[in-house]
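User:
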Amino acid sequence: MKKINFLFLKLSIILSILLISLNSNAIENKIIAIVESEIITSYELKNKIKTFVFFSNQQLTQEVVNRTKNQAMNSLINYNLKKTEILKRKIPANPQAVQNHLENLSKKYETNLNGVKDIFISNNIDYELYLNEVRTEMSWQKLIFKLYGNKINISEEEIDKELNFFIKNQQKFKEYNLAEIEIFIENNSQDQKKIDEIKNQINKIGFENTAVKFSISASSMEGGKLGWINSKSLSNKIANLLNKMKTGDITKPIYQANTITFIKILDMRKLDTKDINLNEIKDKIILRKKNDLLNLFSNNHLSKIKNNAFIQINE
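Assistant: Predicted structure:
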C-alpha cells in the first residue's frame, strides 16, 4: 500500500509539472523526458547541445546537433539523477569548489566572471543552467567522498614498495602534461561503437573538444586537462603505456570496471632523482590512488541509481 501511495504521489507531481509546462509556452518548451520527479525540457536539451558545441569549438550545424543530441540527453539524465540524489541526502552546496571552477573558466577565456557571463549571452547559452550543473557536480563529488571516503584504505607498505622500486630501477623521473577522456561502457556490443565514435570525434574536432563533449570525468569541464603529473603518480599500467609514447600521442582505450579512458600526452619532461622531493612524490601517489578509487565509487554509485530510477523519454 505504501508503494502504491508513493507512486500515486510521484504521478501527481509529474502531472502537476506537466500542467504548468502546458500553460507556459508548451510549443517552444515541451517536456521531453522525466527522471524520477524531475523533468527535462526541449529548452534544456537545446541549451545543453549549444553548450557542448560552444565548449568544443564547433559550428552549430544540423549535422553537429544530430550527432550531439544523444550525448546531451544522457548528460541531462545523469545531471538530474545526481541532483535528485544530493537533494534526497541533503548534501549542502560546495561554494568554494564552484568558485574555483568559475575562476579557472575565466582564466581559460582570459576574462573575469562578468566576461564569462557575457560570452554565454553572446552565444545564446543559459548561464544559470550551466551554473546549476556545476553546483550539482561539485555537490555530487562531496557526496561520493562522504559515502565512500572511509572505504579508501591505502597500504603504506605498498606505496613505499612502489616508490623504492621506481627509484632503484630508473635514473630519471618523467613528468607528463596529460589530458583524458573517460566514457561509460555497458560491456556489450555497443561499447565498440562508442570507442569508434570517440576516435572519430578526436580526428574531427580534436582531443580537448571531444573531452568537453563526451567525457564523464570532472576534468571534462577543463577540456580533459589534468596538468603536470609525475610518472610515479600514475598506475603502473598507465605509466608503462606512456613510457612508450611521445608528445601528442593518445593511448589505446584503457579499460576499467565500467569505463574506458583515453589519455593524451600534451607535453613531457625528465627530472633527475636528485631534484625530486620524495615526500611530495609519495603524497602524489596516495592522491592518485584515492582519486582512482573515488572515481570508481562515483561511477558505480551513479550506475546503481540509474538502474533503479524511473526514466521516461518521450519520442
